[in-house]
Amino acid sequence: MSDRPMPKIDGLNRPFWEGCDASRLMLQRCGNEQCRRYVYYPRVCCPYCHQDRLTWVEACGRGRIESWSAIHRPQFEGFKHEAPILFVAVRLEEGPLMYSRLASRPDGGRDLSGRTVRVVFSDPVAGRRLPYFELDEAR
Fold it and tell me: pLDDT band for position 1 (50/70/90)?
């Protein structure tokens, strides 16, 4: 049992979490030819055109940090030994905004806004792999 909160898996979000377990970032994409937008977090219909023609596709896993914050005092005991945790809002190349954390702390005190990142997946935590991001210095 984990001493940290874990995602609740249901029929709607199961493809996302199964993708994470397989080290694949899965997003929904609208099947309406006039829309075709990517959607994150999992939903029953497209938030843009309101049609229920969403399918699951693998995302490239790259993006850019739009905002970030350092969490020095986590709410849950299971995270305290990891503080400070760098919480990031990442604009994925496919368009959606995804919130997660950096897998490791970068050197120096530079601002992270605008930096490119790529998805990585944690070691299993309570049987589940979680999507984190790491700086993509090659880009």
Answer: very low
